[in-house]
Amino acid sequence: MIAAFALILVCQLFGEVISELFSLPVPGPVIGLGLLFIGLLIKRKPPRELTDAADNLLMHFSLLFVPAGVGVITQIDRLKSDWLPIVASLVISTLLTIAATAFLMSKLLPRAPASPDTQNEGAK
Amino acid sequence: MEPADLTQLWVYLSTKPLTGLTITLVAYAIGFWLYQKSDRNPVCNPVVIAIAIIAAILHFTGTPYSVYFDGAQFVHFLLGPATVALAVPLFRQMETLKRALPVIIFGVLFGSLMATASTVAIAHMLGASMETLASLAPKSVTTPVAMGIAKEIGGVPALTAVCVIVTGIVGATLGPAVMNLVGLTDWRARGFAMGVGAHGIGTARAFQVNQTAGAFSGLSMGLNTIATALTVPFLWHWLFG
Prior knowledge:
The complex is a heterodimer of chains A (124) and B (241).
Chain A: H1 2-21, H2 28-43, H3 48-59, H4 66-70, H5 76-108, H6 116-123
Helix pairs in contact in A: 1-2, 1-3
Chain B: H1 3-14, H2 17-37, H3 46-61, H4 65-77, H5 79-85, H6 87-92, H7 94-99, H8 101-125, H9 130-136, H10 143-152, H11 157-182, H12 187-209, H13 211-240
Helix pairs in contact in B: 2-3, 2-4, 8-9, 8-13, 10-11, 10-13, 11-12, 12-13
């Protein structure tokens, strides 16, 4: 567990260093994600310890959003002045994106080699 | 104990990181309990409930956010490693990825640009400030990445965090209804759209409805994180820089 967690942190650290060094506008953790993904591609079979550590970190992924979300209390003034554009753009854009992307992908994705799961559920 | 003592006790406790950390975990535990009690109704989102509880506590005790964050930062810190860890579920979708790579990449880029462009355009038409626009732009990717992007392009990360969470909840609650309305029944396409449009909250919802949808949602969420982090900052600097 320690080794796996250390590996994840090393990927993040390298990500931060690369982002900083080349002044890339991409956040360090995303570069770290890419590094770990490349590592997995090379290794082909990820060690159990690593997948367990990752699953544990991601199990309560949404908890990690709470401290940042509480930051809303520092933004009350801005929310008061800009609430209409914020709410309207978020709602319309999100539903538009979901509908359009689902439509596009239903046309483009190749017919699945029928897995029983897809067939049964799709028929409902 | 006299009330004065209690106040002093709070003044002492509120400056300890332990308090902010404990409040965060307890509030989330309450939120998660309510979420399960409600049969996992996406309206009872544990994140929203936790934020509401903590915001109320801070408001009524007059505790500044920075004091709370001294403790909560230990939870916040884990967002970075958790983002890196997304590589593992992404890798599990390798087979799907290999089978339809060009289509998937095209779909992710389409969704990513659609989400960013439509949000910024609508908010701009309705008169949002530049800072607000920059905070809204990365709203369809997972919070840590969205906050990182917002910081890069001159937005307010705290506002972005709120926008991301609102986006996830709107997508998870109303997204499936909209897709039903349009008559889309392909679970792969439906899941894919949820991952692009409503990140982790949408993916959690997709998994509850259908395993295939969940897998596609996880895949598109991971790729969208990368696509948005790569495209939005460059486009922003090019358009407004």
